[in-house]
Specification:
This protein has helices spanning 19-30, 35-42, 46-58, 76-91, 98-111, 120-125, 130-139, 153-158, 161-178, 271-285, 306-314, 327-330, 332-336, 338-355, 365-376, 379-389, 438-447, 466-472, 507-510, 525-528, 554-578, 605-612, 653-670; strands at residues 185-194, 222-230, 235-242, 260-263, 293-297, 317-321, 421-430, 450-453, 459-462, 478-484, 491-499. With 671 residues, the chain is α/β, with parallel strands linked by helices. Among the domains are: 76-139, no CATH class; 153-200 and 220-407, Ribonuclease H-like superfamily/Ribonuclease H (Nucleotidyltransferase, domain 5, 2-Layer Sandwich); 419-516, no CATH class. The strands form three sheets. Strands 4-3-2-1-5-6 form a six-stranded mixed β-sheet, with helices on both faces. α1 (19-30) runs antiparallel to α2 and α14 (338-355) crosses α15. The chain is extended.
Amino acid sequence: MPYHKKRKTARPTRGLTDEKTMRAAVAEVIGGKGVNTVARETGIDSMTLKRYVRKVRLNPGTVCKPNYITTQVFNTAEETNLSDYILQASQLHCGLSTKATRKLAYQYAVAIRPPKRIPQSWTTNLSAGKDWLKDFMRRRSELSLRTPEATSMARATAFNRHTVHEFFTNLREVRSRHSYQPHNIYNVDETGVTTVQKPGQVLAAKGARQVGHRTGAERGTLVTVCCCVNAIGNTVPPFFIFPRVRFTDKMLAGCPPGSVGVASPSGWMNADTFLQWMKHFIHHTRCGVDKQVLLILDNHESHVSYECLELARHSGVTMLTLPPHCSHKLQPLDRSVFGPFKRYYNAACDDWVVENPKPMQITDIAALVGRSYPLAFTPSNITAGFAATGIEPLNADIFCDDEYIASSVTDRPQPDAAAPATIVGAIQVSQSSENSSAADTADADQSAVVATASTSGYATVSSQSPANIIASTAGSAVVASQVTSDATATSSYAAVICQLPAFPADPAISTPAGIPSSQSSPVTLEKLRPMPKAGARKSSGGRKRQKTRILTDTPVRAEIRAIQEVKNKSNVTCKQKLNMPEKKVKKSKSKTRPTVNNKVTEPTATSASADSSSTQSPSQRTTKPRKQKTTASNVLRRPRPMSERPPPPRKPQWLQTFQQSGSLLLLLYAE
């Protein structure tokens, strides 16, 4: 492992003199000035100056600068490329771990030409060493080891310039209608609190491999809390949804003042519970037709029921939805409020578990929320969330370019440009005079240089004529080949237009004979480890893709009502099919009588006639009814014939002897 000495004295660090100053000091000494005098004037160590003077006298081309990187694998430029690639990968939400970074460094060192001198351990392990990574991190202060936050592919790609522009366009339109003040702009969202908290950090013995902390239970029960805030820092009392069928008042013991609770079998927000919350919101905000308010919320289907939209429209509430999968950037509650609230709630649960050595119930959650709610829902946290999202004050350019990099994974070319017609080369033929012959023009065409584009992104230079290029191009469709010449013009042009090949060009084939091949293309980290790229979009069915909308507008409400009516109609049809009575089976006229023991029917005349019907002609046979499946109501069945039954079990010898002797005794006794 490399050793980096830490200086303990106040002596100035050596090796900080630049090459220009050192070269001037050496020139003064060689010119006849004393070494110690020059050392005192320039502040350079005298022994260092003597060493460089001796080197320059032996070799005038000596670099007057200390070389501390003689064994370093990558130079400064290559390490900069590696650092930039790592930062770009982290912005694309596909960052490299320490192991992946070491493996990439080895691949990069092997691919670079001229080849690098690498340690033998790199070749053995097919990755760089831990010591190299430690020194690389020390030299690159812009890098650090971080724990990433789990981000789904939908969130990473949905937050793009287009969706953000649509949201701020709708926000400007809504704010221009009623000129909402900050105290009339609200944001609502749900969060979940559970009976099993996430323990915080605790003090324990140094070097302990495992440190535990008690929780409320093994598997927690989740309670939904619906919170609402406005842009000046005020809050609406929380709305609790408990996973129960019936609600009791003891579930809200110790809750924040003004809180309301309801019961739902699932414990999640649905259309009915959100309608109840909307009434709770209208009651506390005192909104109406003369006092309009703006409510910003996400696109969950429980928020877009037609009954709720009608209630909001008549109560002066304008509802604006966020783009799908963008709440982590555009929702004020997610940006600055819910994070502190969860930390304070977990800390309150830790204290409760220590004070109450018993399992936590859902009736204890409201009191814990009552402790943490005023600590997290502060005016400073709430206003910071509205400012960070650009909602209040309004700022559509709040997000920089780096925050949109993750959405570049889904950047695709236009459908019309999938196989574009590309001008391969333009040949200019200069004529010296008006009397130049066509043969000269043909010779000039043959000697002209034509550049052909390949799918790999590099250009291949060819000195062949356009006709030869067109004839030798495999896998490409020639669109046109035209040579324009004019006797009176001073120049003529020939353009060759062809379609890009569907496969990468072979350098050995694309480079014609007679022209030296160009140098090998520079190795880039994107070639060694390509960045993720989404494939072609597939047109699949399913529900319509959502977007940011003004829900209380008439066209949107009409669309939601139509969708809801179709959904309700399909639900009614499914329920009717499930509740449809069973088809009645026609009973035969013959009556069957079950026995007591084996619950089977006795053979009747009807069965006998059915057996005899097999001997009848096809014209005399009658259509048999469909065979009925055995159900709970149809337990009885006709016994099998004797020919199909298994043989009876054989009697033992002693039983046969006993039966014969018993019969003889009975005969003797009778006589």
